[in-house]
Structure formats: structure tokens, C-alpha cells
Amino acid sequence: MSARITLHCNTLWRDGSCTSQVLTDALTVEEARTAAGRRGWRSHPDGSDYCPPCTGGGPARTVTVVHIHGGTP
Questions:
Q1: Cα–chain center distance at 26
Q2: Residue 15: DSSP 8-state
């Protein structure tokens, strides 16, 4: 069994929202957040996720595909 979990940045700016996202082949949200965390994403205890630029950690990595387990594409 496989799943594709996409995390979206939850930061809202004055004139719109951040469009950064990270796609993973994770089986659980926790695995997806762990994979995204290795790329500078931060997860808040309230369940919100934030990309590197929104947390002051660097350039956005929009639509990054992260493979964290084996399987066929």
C-alpha cells in the first residue's frame, strides 16, 4: 500500500497565501512532516506546516517530490 501526502504552507500573507508545497510518498502525515523537516519545513503543534522562507530558513522549495519509501512511481 502506498499514499501520496502533500503538505501545504499555512502562512497567510497580507495580499494572499503562500503557495509552497512539498509532495511526499509518505504513508502517514508524521512521515511526511519528517521528510519535509529534512528540507527546512517546520510543523507547528496545532497541525500547521510552514515552508523554509515563511520560517526564515531559506528559499522556497515548491512542488518538491520526496520519496521516503520504496515502491514504483
A1: 11
A2: T
SS3 state at 41: coil
What phi and psi values does residue 17 have, to the nearest 5 degrees?
-120, 155
pTM for the full predicted model: 0.68
Give the position of cell 503538505: 7
* Residue linked to cell 497580507: 14
Question: pLDDT tens digit string along 46-62?
Answer: 888 998 888 876 655 54
Alpha helix positions (H), 1-73: 29-37
Alpha carbon distance 71, 52 (integer Å): 28
